[in-house]
Amino acid sequence: MTAFNAVRFKVKPGMEDAFLDAHRVSVAAWPGLRHANMVKIGEARYCIIAEWDSIDAMANARPQMIATLNSFRDTLEDLGGGMGVTDAVSGSVVLSMK
Predict the structure, then answer these.
(1) Domain range holding 54?
(2) CA angle at residue 52 from 30 to 56, to 5 degrees?
(3) Which side of the chain, N or C, has fewer Cβ within a 10 Å radius?
(4) 10 Å Cβ neighbour count for 8?
(5) Half-sphere exposure (CA, 13 Å, Cβ side) for 19?
(6) What total number of domains does the chain contain?
(7) Does 52 map to a domain?
């Protein structure tokens, strides 16, 4: 069953190109990834939304996702509230619409 994850980020001033470049280079190599979009949701704020073959495929790709995060972690600001530098959610599709 298809799965999705979404991760929210806040990028440090002047680091947006490095942040985006890190995703351009590595995301395509994540196994089980069907499609991903980086969405600008505000000033220096982004959200990546990714579609996966399954929840297991997404779980199996975690080492690659963590390696990608580690490659640009220094470009991120803490989101506050004890969240750290990312706010991630994921799950399996329960209703598919147009």
Answers:
(1) 3-84
(2) 90
(3) C
(4) 18
(5) 23
(6) 1
(7) yes
